[in-house]
């Protein structure tokens, strides 16, 4: 559920993680100044001053895991917050979050993880491609890192044909390597 708090102008997303347990709810919200507040399933509240700070912290944790500095394979609060902000119902500002993740990615491998995660989630899994394709296309046209990200997207054959065609112009493919006709 997405709600707009009339008093604060804050966008609030509520994501239930269990169909049988109504108490299992996480909240991710972004206020009008861009600050993110995330309440975990345990009720812990985490805050980031900006999408860029959330993206930096996300990549810091991912790099520690990749370097096996920690063997904690569980999702971090950053993982869960990003998931909440890019899943159904998709937050209108999720492209700004994806942009921050791409900007903060250290290399093409990390950009590829954004392609295979949040971008595919938004355009393929949740079917929100038509809603965001103009912005994605504009960013991919002007930003080489976005072009790299879009090229890493696997298209959904059951997805929106116009969205698939427009993403394919930047290198997105179906999983078998073919492109839309």
Largest sheet descriptor: 5 strands, antiparallel
Proportion of residues in extended strands: 5-15%
Radius of gyration: 17 Å
Please count the helical segments.
7
Rounded mean pLDDT score: 78
Number of strands: 5
Strand arrangement, largest sheet? Answer: 1-2-3-4-5
- Counting copies of identical and different chains, the oligomeric state is single chain
How would you spell out the order of helices and strands? EEEEEHHHHHHH
Helix content: 40-55%
How far the N terminus sits from the C terminus, by CA atoms, comes to 36 Å
Structural class: alpha+beta
Shape by Cα distribution: globular
Tag the structure with descriptive keywords:
5 strands; alpha+beta; 7 helices; five-stranded antiparallel sheet; 2 domains; 181 residues; single chain
Would you give an account of this structure?
Residues 1-24 have low confidence and may be disordered. This protein has helices at residues 51-66, 77-85, 94-104, 108-125, 129-142, 144-151, 161-168; strands at residues 2-4, 11-16, 25-30, 36-39, 45-48. The protein is built from 7 helices and 5 strands, in the order βββββααααααα. By secondary structure, it is α+β, with helices and mostly antiparallel strands. It has a 5-stranded antiparallel sheet with strand order 1-2-3-4-5. Strand 4 and strand 5 form a beta hairpin.
């Amino acid at each position: 559920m997405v709600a707009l708090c009339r008093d604060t102008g804050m966008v609030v997303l509520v994501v239930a993680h269990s169909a049988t347990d109504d108490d299992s709810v996480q909240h991710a919200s972004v206020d009008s100044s861009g600050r993110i507040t995330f309440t975990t399933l345990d009720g812990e509240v985490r805050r980031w001053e900006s999408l860029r700070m959330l993206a930096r912290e996300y990549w810091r944790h991912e790099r520690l895991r990749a370097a096996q500095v920690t063997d904690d394979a569980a999702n971090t609060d950053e993982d869960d917050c990003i998931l909440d902000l890019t899943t159904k119902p998709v937050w209108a500002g999720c492209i700004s979050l994806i942009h921050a993740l791409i900007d903060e990615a250290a290399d093409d491998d990390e950009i590829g993880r954004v392609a295979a995660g949040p971008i595919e989630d938004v355009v393929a899994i949740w079917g929100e491609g038509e809603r965001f394709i103009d912005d994605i296309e504009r960013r991919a046209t002007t930003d080489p890192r976005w072009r790299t990200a879009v090229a890493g997207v696997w298209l959904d054959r059951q997805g929106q044909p116009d969205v698939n065609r427009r993403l394919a112009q930047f290198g997105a493919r179906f999983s078998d390597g073919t492109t839309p006709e």
